[in-house]
Amino acid sequence: MTDSHPSELRPETRTVHVPQPVIEGSRPITMPIYQTSGFTFDDPAVMADAMGRADGPFVYGRYTNPTVRSLEEAVSGLEGGVGAIATGSGMGAINTVLLGLLKPGDHLIAQKSLYGGTAAMINDLVGRFGITVTYVPENDPAALRAAVRPETRLVYLETISNPMTLVADLPGMCAAARELGILSVVDNTFATALLCRPIEHGADIVVHSTTKYLSGHTDVVGGLAVFASTELYEKVWHFAIELGASADPFAAWLSLRGLQTLALRMERHCSNARLLATRLASHPAVTAVHWPGLATHPSHELAGKLLSDFGGVLSFDLAGGREAGEKFMSSVRLMLLAPSLGGVETLVLHPATTSHRSLNAEELARTGIGEGTVRIAVGIEHPEDLWADVAQALA
């Protein structure tokens, strides 16, 4: 530790201005938590410059922070981006991008099957800001081209949709968007950069809920937006610091800690999902299973080309409708009835009344969600223990 303060300072002052460590000749193995709201400068000109630059010196926690930037750079590197903005939640990342790029009167194209929070946000944009939206299939570039208007600004996709696990034709949809001069935004939360890297398929922006697989331990809420171009990154960054949806250093540190085991966890998530999906597909109480690794899934062929594995989330439809779904969820013993996904434990929910509760009957039908649809976010437990729980709940 170093102490640059003169000894004549009074104790009340010295307790505020504590000595700071100077590390020479070594570095920490893990990124420390920089739990500070701001940073001090010796040169006023350097401080002024820092407040206007996305890549400048650290100045204020709402802009970024060493721990937060470490997470931004780590995920940006995984996704093949030039920069990233960490936010306080996944919806914070989505809102930062949409609000930062859209203005009243603009037109948005979105895929039909979307996460409920995203769909609710789009409805809010329509109602309050006069933004119009056209929904198209996630795998139909021709429909995208037909939907484009002079005021169209971007297309919004999900690599693997929530909860119906439809896989977007990223090469085709992003190429069509670029050809037409509109931006493509892809939510890659379900796949992560380990299963798919949307920027390599033409995406301009990739968003994540780091709450899910990236942190992986159900103990943090966060989000990230990754950018393919510096110009776009800097444009949205300036809006982001005004919006104030910034990530907290401790939350960023938790996400960094989880990121280190992502590859190991994703392998188990996917293999467990494969076992459950395969066995559910032959169960008499189940009318359909939605997991792109099954040959019967409408996205199976595309998923085989686009993804390195098929993900850890599946949904299935029960013959008895909502009553059967509610009975199943109240009967599980090992799996937990809870929102979210991507943690080490297996979570189950009823999308129509939880994650997609803001959608009306018509909107639910558009996304493919039925009254008896149940979603399982598969954890890393032993697969036979998970199946035993599913089987007894179905029985």
Automatic annotation (TrEMBL):
Modified residues (N6-(pyridoxal phosphate)lysine): 212
Recorded coiled-coil stretches: none
InterPro entries associated with the record: Cys/Met-Metab_PyrdxlP-dep_enz, PyrdxlP-dep_Trfase, PyrdxlP-dep_Trfase_major, PyrdxlP-dep_Trfase_small
GO molecular function annotations of the record: cystathionine gamma-lyase activity; homocysteine desulfhydrase activity; methionine gamma-lyase activity; pyridoxal phosphate binding
Top-level lineage group: Bacteria
Biological processes, Gene Ontology terms: cysteine biosynthetic process via cystathionine; transsulfuration
Any one Gene Ontology cellular component term annotated for this protein: cytoplasm
Keyword Protein biosynthesis applies: no
Requisite cofactors: pyridoxal 5'-phosphate
Reactions catalysed according to its record: L-methionine + H2O = methanethiol + 2-oxobutanoate + NH4(+); L-homocysteine + H2O = 2-oxobutanoate + hydrogen sulfide + NH4(+) + H(+)
Keyword Lyase assigned: yes
Keywords tagged on the record: Lyase, Pyridoxal phosphate
Entry EC number(s): 4.4.1.2
Family statement: Belongs to the trans-sulfuration enzymes family.
Family annotation (PANTHER family): CYSTATHIONINE GAMMA-LYASE-RELATED, TRANS-SULFURATION ENZYME FAMILY MEMBER
Protein name as catalogued: homocysteine desulfhydrase
Species of origin: Nonomuraea jabiensis
Upper lineage: Bacteria, Bacillati, Actinomycetota, Actinomycetes, Streptosporangiales
